[in-house]
Structures are given as structure tokens and as C-alpha cells.
Amino acid sequence: MNTVNNETMTQETKETQDSTHDSPAQIQPDFSWDEIDTVLLDMDGTLLDKYFDDHFWEEYVPKVFAEIHKLTPPEARKQLLARYKRVESTLQWCDLDYWSEQLGLDIPELKCKIDHLIQVHPYVIDFLKFLREIGKEVHLVTNAHSKTLEIKMRKTELGPWFDRIVCAEEMGEAKEQPIFWERLEEHLGYNKSRTLLADDTAKVLHSAREYGMGHLIFVAKPSSRIPVKYSDQYPAIVTFDELIKGRG
Ligand SMILES: [Mg+2]
What we know:
This protein is of the alpha/beta class. The chain folds into two domains: 26-49 and 119-243, HAD superfamily/HAD-like (Rossmann fold); 53-116, no CATH class. Helices cover 47% and strands 10% of the residues. The protein contains eleven helices and six strands. A six-stranded parallel sheet has the order 3-2-1-4-5-6, with helices on both faces. Strand 4, helix 11 and strand 5 (215-219) form a beta-alpha-beta unit. 32% of the residues are buried. Bound molecules: magnesium ion.
């Protein structure tokens, strides 16, 4: 009897966890498009499905690395994740040349081999059309390396939707650093209080907030394979149709 109860409890607990995923409640975006002139959009996880990047770095690269070095895939994965961690939130992390050299692999070529996994999130095109219709300046602002950007723009054909495309390497800092935004403002010439930034990385939103960015939106479902997780600090969306409906 006890065993049954325990099993039932375990199952219920699991279901509860699966349905909430420890996510805070959604903070609804609350702004009018009249207050915005410029929109800055992150690429990976925000416009594009982060599943590609997660799969590439956590599964595909370890698999190739394991074959070359005669390791088991879990051993290779453990070694590589530790190496990734050391350069987290820096430009090195995004630098494909750095990883090609570090790992002795042709990283851009490997990315091209699984480029069928590069996907645009639902409603992104509708949102970009909407922004154009209401006359906003729209810039893509990414930590991604220029070679990654090239592969992804070729695959998705999103490039023409943007007024400008900026890779963090051009600013000499990753977006996680507040100085990045000072340099970006100088580079693009926007009014920060009338600018909206959407990004799926909380650390990036923290640095933009510290710098004084007017409007911040957290993207709560960066990967199609990972459950929604809202932020307890920022207004959030799951998909961009939430910023189109009833606005403008
Ligand atoms: Mg991102």
C-alpha cells in the first residue's frame, strides 16, 4: 500500500514538475509601440531555434571529437563542456576560429553539415513584417561569430529584414558587458530610452538594463525542445505574435 502511494506521489510530483518546470509566472510586456523607435533583436534562441546550437555543441561536436580521440561520447562531452564553461559569456565562446584551433576540428564545416537544424522560430517573419509596416528601425545584434552569422543568414534568408546586422566581435565585447551597449549606441546612433531589446539570455538583459536600455523583453522559449521558462525580472514572450496582437 505504502509502495503504491509512494509511486503515485512520485508520479504526481513528476507531473507537477513537468507542467511548471519551476518557471516563475509570466510578466506581461507592457509598452506601446508609440514609445519605441528602434528594435534590437538577438539571433540564436530569439529569432532562431537554439536547438541547433545546443545539439551542435553538446551532442554533435562531442561525437566527432570522441571518434577522433577514441573516447566514449560521454567522456568527450564531459571534457568539452568543461572547456566551454571556462569561456562562457565571452567573445571566445562564440569564436569559431578559436574552437577550430582548440579542438583541431573545422567547426564552420561541421555546422554546415547539420544546417538542416537551423530553423526560424514561429511568428518571427510576421513580427519583422509588422515592424516594417509600423516603420521601426530594426537591427540584428548577436554575439555569434561572423562565420556563424553567414551560415545562418544563408540558410534562413532573414538578412534583408534588418537595417543593420552587428556581431559583438565588431564592438570588441560580448553583449553581457554593459560597455557593449555604449559602443553599440555610438555605432548605430539610437535613443536608448526609445529602444527595445529582445534576447533569450538573462545576463544580456542584465547588462542592457545596467546601461539603461529603455525596454527589455525576455524570450522564454529559446529552444523548441526545452519547456518555457519565464523570467522573474523581465517582461517575457514565448513567441513574437505576442508583441503584434492589439498593438501598434
Ligand atoms: Mg540568444
